Amino acid sequence: MNVTSNNGPSVVLAAGLRSPWVRAGGVFRGENAAHLGARLGRELLARTGVDPATLDEVIVGSVGPPHDQANVARVIGLRAGVPWQVPARTVARNCASGIEAVTTAISEIGSGQGSLYLCMGVEVMSGYPLLFGDKMTNLFAGLMKARSLPQTLGTMTKFRPSFLKPRVALLEGLTDPTTGLIMGKTAEVLARDFHISREEADDFACQSHLKAKVARDKGRFKREILPHLPLRARKDKGSVQHDDGIRDDQNMKSLGKLRPYFEKPDGIVTVGNSCGITDGACALLITTEEKARELGLKPLAKIRSAAWAGLDPARMGLGPVFATAKALDQAGCTMKDIGTVELNEAFAAQVLACARAFDSAEFARKHLHRDQAVGELDLTKTNVNGGAIALGHPVGATGARLLLTTAHEMEVGNHELGLATLCIGGGQGGAVILERMAA
Amino acid sequence: MIDLSGFPLPENCPEVGACIRVEQPEPGLRVLILDPPHRKLAVLDLPLLRDLGMAIEEAEQDRDLKGLVITGRTPAEFAAGADIDSIASITDPALLERAVQVAHELFRRIENLKARTVAAVGGAVPGGAFELSLSCDFIVANDDKKTRIGLPEVLLGIVPGWGGCHRLPKRVGLPTALPAILTGRLFPAVKAKKAGMIDRLTKPEYLRRVASDLAMGRISVKKKGRGWKGWLIDRNPLAASLIASQARKQTLAKTHGLYPAPLRAIDLVVQAPRTSMKQAAVKEAKAIAELATSSVCKNLITIFKGSEEAKKLSKLADGSSPVKTERGAVIGAGVMGAAIAGVMAEKGVAVRLADLSEEALDRAVHEHRASVNKKRKRRRMKPHEADAALDRLDPSPGLIGFGRSQIVVEAVAEVLDVKRKLFGEVAEQVSKDCILATNTSSLSVDAIAETLPHPERVCGMHFFNPVRRMPLVEIIKGEHTSDQVVAQVAALALRMGKTPVVVKDVAGFLVNRILGPYLDEAIRLFQGGADPVHVDKLMVNFGMPMGPFTLLDEIGLDIAAHAGQSLFEAYGERMTPSDGIGTMVKPERLGKKTGRGFYDHPKGKGKKAKPEICSDLAQFQSGTFAKSLNDQQIIDRLVLAMVNEGARCMEENVVDSASQLDLATVFGTGFAPFRGGLLRYADSVGSAAVVEKLEAIASASDVSQRPGGRAKFTPAALLQQMARQGRGFHDPAPASSTSTAPQPVGGPA
User: Fold this and answer.
1) Is the pLDDT of residue A6 over 70?
2) Looking at the domain assignment, is residue B192 inside a domain?
3) Going along B151-275, which residue ranges are E strands?
4) What is the pLDDT of residues B23-78, one digit of tens each?
5) B395: chain A residues, CB-CB within 8 Å
6) Chain A contact for B351 (CB, 8 A cutoff)
7) A11-127+277-435: which CATH topology?
């Protein structure tokens, strides 16, 4: 959607904060989406001084919200001190759920529904459950129905130890049900399509860690990270200050030792050149330029355009190319105008494939119905602070972080325009172009 | 009809029959509503009992009566129990004994009614109100948070005297009844139901209907019987005496034999299952007659009334409530600040706790979570309530995000410029209505307020360490502090479960100013050769929660020395600190926090380890004068040092009344509650005797020769004046009225 052309109000990203990105099953394993999300939301509201009663809605993107927090957005809103009167909804677009929260707000603002939204992405992948399989579920159902002891015993004799094999919600969630491919395998498809070698992928992964380490040490992430003391942290542990997936000593040698994870023995995607399973939350305040001024806020960036696109689910990793093409057209600019890019690193092979597709006129003709390439994706301008391979990828939250990191990077690097884009499991891409505000 | 002759009656005593409304909503059912026109909240005073007697008499004569319900004006208010004003005012044991017997007989008649009787209760159902309910066949109670049921008499120095000591154990068994009566705890509805204290819970809207149905036999409830346990435990003399001896031992460990009521309650309760209600009436009446006329009971009642009075501080002059504090901030995540923020968060205020140190913030959050999770585990909080309590404390690295705070409490270093600067920065962020409260204990509130915009919203909110346990908050009203601000802060303190006292902005405020001379005197006694263990024991037996040397170790020797010094700077000669503590203070010897002070505090053994007196104390003892003092002289020196300073506080109107000063000493220093507080103790000694003793101490050779000794013990002008007039702190001053408000005479009884 083109945010500014139709004389509607211009939408701004007024402020944002995120938690550290933490490897799932690690220090955040005692966390839950509502507690983590509410902490971020409260802090953002407090720091901006926004009266929560003046919010028009709380919109939270989450891929796997906890089963005991139905409409987790509502739970987060209430726990963040947002009064009952303000509605809340949870939105999902798989890996782009965090951006979906923002584009939902953009539509609402565009259609005059409101002007002030608390948008978040929240994902605590540590909390994804193990499930009982069908057979075990049926057995339980049978036991519940049994009215007499013989019936109960009869049902119980049907039990087999194999029934106890759990279904892992995480793995099943990461598998595309229409193609049967787990996400890693879609990256392998791209590696074959675009002739990407293991070395190239490992090198990219290595760079991601290196850039992230430098950014962390420079204090670049202090702008966006709210240190967080996780629930059930041990008494002698302090709050988590940094993203904990960054490997300071990552090198080609150790990466080279890893075996392909998804396609043995000839695949190139390893756990080392893929993003990790991660917990995290990110909160953004989305409003109009006018409202921001009214509230005395100094917005981080204006949202110039935002676009969604669909593609072959087996090649979902190319989503950024499709979506960016649309977003650029809407914004009326080209890749050359973009000063900084955050392109989510689901897999190193996938990012590299995107780079080649961006630059390929043939790809553009074949898939995008345009004669020229979308434009060069300058990897030196892309993910300058590292990406998901180092930081991690809490699926529902990532989109919001991409926007926040881009907005800050435009200020740090003095760029006029920034692009945040990502691929989406199931075959979609999302892209948002941000514009720096006049000081 | 109950004969009221001889009893003191309230001035506005209503006409006969006015206190009970009788409704007959259907044939065979009578509903008695406790609705005394002369009371805001129904109290079981004599007019009400008289009218209840009449209503019961009518019921007895009604042959068609099938059910009888006793209930309050609304489902949420039943009655507040017996009339403690009259208990406090009756001094004739015979009269009291008769009063108890009268109620007993009335309750026995309710018990013996042929109709099914149901008490339908809600809100607070303490003491006499619960005892009335116990005489009914069934008790139905509101299933809500406001309902609290129990027998708190022991806390007032008496025992449940209207059958409670007998009917409760008969109903729920000894193992439940005894602790319930000894702790005086008011049980929430669900817990009361679980313990068998009541028979049925229902929502307030259905209370009357369910009670009526029960009375008319349309529904039934299963009575929780004791079964075999009744025979094996309650009615077994062997088991009962075992329980009694255990309970006695525990009680004595807590009360040091200074409080007779719990022991008396044990005797009554243990024998209850084998006692008829007729005998019970005689026994309870006798116990009440003895206990209620004692000074212990009268003093405990004044303290109770004082704390009830303190609740009124949270109201504005016109009786309205100030703005409710929903959002606050605390600056400084040290021991005090962290605990203040934690308690606020637990009690429903959303708090930002600011500190520059990330570690301090983490510690504070850990501590808060531990406290909340403990309550969650013990089911004192439901999971969702605990989650909300956790959510209400947000750490803030620095002074950011304070904009919407309604109150900011600072608990940072005790440096005037630091506090001024801090509040200056805060003032730029917050609205002009945001209260700026300082937890200072040694700086002047006015001095802090001086440089701030809108000084009317600046006040002191002085908590005591440890914040979670100490029940007093001194609210320091500076020169400019508005009444609105005082009321709002008092309301917040009450919400935090604390008792507020409003104090003038003088050095040390009230409690520390009074405690200073006491601790200083203790150190001088120690230097003079007194044995700290012995002195501590004397003061514990006097009724203090701990002796002065244990207290010094708790406070920290360095803190105590600093406090003493600042009192000296403010008040001069009479507060001259002893040099004793200075020589003792070393980095490794600061009291409990460093493991050593007067006592050795073994580390890592938890609370159970008993501290031993240090063996190297002799080096600090230079004199021998204290060895020639007898026990009473030691107590006098310590306590009268406080009394004399207390008298000066009264002269300067540091607090509004003697009873507020008493309340502050009880809640702030733990001063023996059964003595009714510092000034009431002085009154019991007699002002003339106090003056005489003070003069004797002042002229004792060791005191008169030391710097400031004479000034310290020379009786305050007010004391001398009172001694001449032959009155105490609590007696109204003759002719020209002083700040001591005359006590309302008579009361409704």
Assistant:
1) no
2) yes
3) 186-188, 200-202
4) 999 999 999 999 999 989 999 988 999 999 999 999 999 999 999 999 999 999 99
5) 229, 239
6) no
7) Peroxisomal Thiolase; Chain A, domain 1 (3.40.47)
